[in-house]
Design goal:
The complex is a heterodimer of chains A (307) and B (266). Chain A is mostly helical and 307 residues long. Chain A is built from 13 helices and no strands. Chain B has one domain (57-265): MetI-like fold (Orthogonal Bundle). The chains are: A mainly alpha (307), B mainly alpha (266). The interface between A and B is large, with 94 and 92 residues.
Chain lengths: 307, 266
């Protein structure tokens, strides 16, 4: 293009700049259009989740007489029943997470080592319970574990025990039921991350003379830790706020955080206190997820998409 | 990457691993299997294996007006949730996939908020909000609350479909004169329809199985099936619930297989 052909518009700019303006306007229109597509979903989430939670947070800052106070939060440290709830919740969360690691790691490891077709079939055993209603699975465990349930009937028939074991309506029942529900949340992200471990690394280790056990311990296990960590965090966080199974299988003896929230708001209509419990639960949840994200990076947040 | 004979370890050396994995798989699947078998029991005692067989618990389920009403409510809500969540979720996934918007982190965080925030808090919050705007015990309220919970699943499923699709095809259509909408509906959508259908199925089952939020915001004539089941379980263990549970398990299997089939079509 020769210099002479560069024309100027009325404002005296070269037409390249005019083009830039047009492109920029177009990009703005494009962005507006895309935002319009997003906005209904965003608006709904904002209205149904963010607004009420903000509102509850605001409520939690006032005591029953409407005075600004920290009374709703102070009672967590003062009342023994609240402290007991927190201790129970963390105890359940630790035990269930531990059980999930204990059972989930070997299963995920096996799945990752099986040929593709066999792994696909075995994966059904993880995915089907995952998509079965939590209520159905809790009901099943009630039937299996209760006083006159399957386990007790069988054990007494064989003569192993004389008296029924207390398996449901207590701590043990809650832990068994919750472990069953949480296990897929650990296995699925762990399996996905194990699949990305390069087999050549393992083969190299074995070629260099490492025993299978040493290959696992020194190569596979360290490489699987990020996946394990994301599974552990998800399970732990879900346990902290879990409601259905402890409510149905705790027999009123195992009061967890979420049950306490339900009782405080539904039974006693004490919104300030219930809201304060919710705020602290949310803060703990977000803190754990944030800490994990900070330690392990973006990989951590991707695990949700494994669902 | 093929895993066949990947390592010089024989299956025999791995027997202990298979045994352990098999036990965990049994632990995962046994409760559902036991419930399905027990639902055909003829006795009102929960015995396993049942001494006599019958369909009496299914008759008790389908014969009860209360259970039937609750099932109808749940189906209605789940269908509407699937429609609304799929529309909103697909639109959102399309916008996110374009990657031209700023604040993507904040947008993602907001859209997937219902996965990170404890459900009990969402339940109490929704109840609190609905009490002020009169949406408690309404179908509309249930559909809105369930849509918010199903949205992240639809967004993630459709997004994964869009990621394996070449957006340039839509650009070509538009540069050849197709409008934005006709380009999407004629070129893009036919190619990502399988993930859209999968997303819709996930949304349906999320809504149908939802318990905690429904406990707070449904009641009276809009009592959902899960709420009625929860209340029934608090009182006593009624074998009718075994029949209902079996129906729910079958529904899960059917929907999952459908989602799997559609997923393969991708």
């Amino acid at each position: 293009m020769s210099l002479a052909s560069v024309s100027l518009d009325h404002a005296g700019r070269p037409d390249g700049a005019l083009n830039t303006d047009a492109l920029r306007a177009d990009a703005r229109r494009e962005a507006r259009g895309l935002f319009a597509l997003l906005s209904p979903g965003l608006l709904l989430v904002f209205a149904v989740i963010i607004v009420p939670i903000g509102w509850l947070f605001w409520l939690s800052l006032f005591d029953e007489s409407g005075q600004l106070s920290a009374a709703n939060y102070a009672r967590f440290f003062e009342q023994a029943s609240y402290i007991k709830t927190f201790v129970t919740t963390f105890k359940v969360a630790f035990v269930v997470t531990g059980a999930c690691v204990l059972f989930g790691y070997p299963l995920a490891y096996m799945l990752s080592q099986l040929p593709r077709r066999a792994a696909g079939v075995c994966l059904i055993f993880v995915i089907l319970p995952f998509w079965t209603s939590v209520l159905v699975r809790t009901y099943a465990w009630l039937v299996i574990l209760q006083r006159k349930g399957l386990v007790n009937t069988w054990l007494m028939d064989i003569g192993v025990i004389g008296q029924p074991l207390p398996l449901a309506n207590n701590f043990a029942g809650v832990v068994i039921g919750m472990t069953h529900i949480m296990l897929p949340f650990l296995v699925l992200p762990l399996y996905a991350s194990m699949k990305t471990i390069d087999v050549d690394c393992l083969r190299a280790g074995m070629n260099l003379g490492a025993s299978p056990a040493a290959t696992f311990r020194q190569i596979f296990f360290p490489l699987s830790l990020p996946g394990l960590a994301s599974g552990v965090v998800i399970v732990f966080v879900l346990c902290l706020g879990f409601f259905v199974t402890p409510a149905l299988m705790g027999g009123g003896k195992v009061i967890m955080w979420a049950m306490r929230m339900e009782q405080t708001t539904s039974l006693y209509s004490n919104w300030g206190a219930g809201a304060a419990l919710g705020v602290v639960l949310l803060a703990v949840t977000l803190a754990l997820l944030g800490l994990f994200h900070w330690l392990l990076g973006a990989r951590a947040t991707g695990v949700w998409s494994e669902r | 990457m093929s895993m066949e004979n990947a390592l010089p370890i024989s299956h025999r050396q791995r027997l202990w691993l298979y045994a352990l994995g098999g036990l965990v798989m049994l632990f995962l699947i046994a409760p559902s299997v036991i419930i399905v078998i027990m639902s055909f029991s003829g006795s009102s005692l929960l015995e396993f294996p049942p001494q006599e067989w019958s369909l009496r618990w299914y008759e008790s389920y389908f014969g009860s007006v209360e259970w039937r009403d609750a099932t109808v409510v749940s189906v209605k809500v789940a269908v509407m949730t699937a429609i609304v969540a799929t529309l909103l979720g697909t639109a959102a996934a399309y916008a996110i996939n374009a990657r031209t918007l700023r604040l993507t982190g904040a947008i993602n965080a907001l859209l997937t908020a219902s996965l990170t925030i404890p459900v009990i808090l969402i339940g109490i919050g929704t109840f609190f909000l609905y009490a002020r705007i009169g949406l408690n015990n309404t179908l509309t309220g249930l559909v809105i609350a369930h849509t918010v919970q199903a949205l992240p699943l639809v967004v993630l499923t459709v997004l994964s479909g869009l990621r394996s699709y070449d957006m340039n095809q839509e650009m070509v259509a538009r540069s050849l004169g197709a409008g934005r909408f006709s380009a999407f509906f004629q070129v893009t959508m036919p190619q990502i329809r399988f993930s859209i259908v999968s997303g819709a199925l996930f949304a349906f089952i999320t809504s149908f199985d939802e318990v905690v939020v429904s406990l707070f915001i449904s009641g009276g004539e809009t009592t959902t099936l899960t709420r009625r089941m929860f209340n029934a379980l608090r009182d006593q263990i009624d074998p009718t619930i075994a029949a209902i549970s079996t129906c729910l398990i079958v529904l899960s299997i059917v929907l999952l297989s459908a989602a799997q089939l559609f997923g393969r079509g991708r």
